[in-house]
Fold this sequence. Notes:
Blueprint: E1 5-7, H1 30-34, E2 52-53, E3 59-60, E4 67-74, H2 86-92, E5 96-102, E6 107-114, H3 127-144, E7 148-155, E8 159-165, H4 168-180, H5 199-209, E9 215-220, H6 227-239, E10 241-248, H7 250-253, E11 260-264, E12 269-273, H8 277-301, E13 304-309, H9 314-319
Amino acid sequence: MKRLRFLWPQRTDSRPAATDDGEAAVRVTVPTLVRLNNAAAGLRLHDGPIRAHRSGGYLSKFKGRGMEFDEVRPYMPGDDVRSLDWRVTARTGKTHTKLFREERERPVYVSVDYRQTMFFATRGMFKSVMAARLAALIAWSANRHGDRVGGQIFTTNAHYDLKPQTGRGAVLHLFKRLADLSTPTGARHDAVARTDSSLEAALMRLCRHARPGSLIFLLSDFRQLNPTAESHLLRLARHCDVVLLFIHDRLESQLPQRGRYRLSDGRQELTVNAADERYRLGYQQKFHRRQEHLHHLALKYRMRLIPCQTTDDPVRILQAWR
């Protein structure tokens, strides 16, 4: 079923049924994401499931130095021998040691799923729009705390990696990408970075780019979460704090009441008969099994799982994460 939009009986509009703001429920714009800056003022991303002290007022599950290389100087009595720079020592014939400085900025990665199944809703807003608004709130909050904002956007046809950077410019760069790709055909005319854009490939790329100690938000419906993708999640969770935002529409969790319902993607139509009680129950159980599997993975790998429906308030969803 491709990007099907549910149409309630007696309704001819193909947009989500409970939408008040029209186009804003199905498409992302930069001004809409910019306006979320004030709403993000009360969000504190570092109040998540993390454990040990880190510089800059943050907490982390890692016991390393949390330091970044600064310079090399001649060795002095009392210096940590583990910091000796053997290359410079061999080149100069004199013992040198590496100096480190504290990291004051924590990389925050926002991974946004823009695959075809995300362009769907029966009420509220498209899953893709919810993902973009959540991503905007996270980015604004990270910016307010002086963190570097980066991540990725992956569509059905391509992926786009965003290097973590500080400042408003990094946030706006993310917003522009989210807006440009906010329609299912948004990436088709962009020749950049065409490659395997499955969830598995997206997680593999995050494993390559995310530095240990990063805070990673994955915003997706987590369809096609196969064993290989789960192994990449495990790798991320070992070295980073990972938050899974599971975005779904109510129709994905349960069929409507008995009756015949018409669905359309604007070109083709499909009629669903929800009168079969066994079919309705099996449909509901399939969704619950997928949700329970995600919950099990989150517990196993010490990640945070946050379910989010298309009718939820994205601000309250992130406030509940604290």
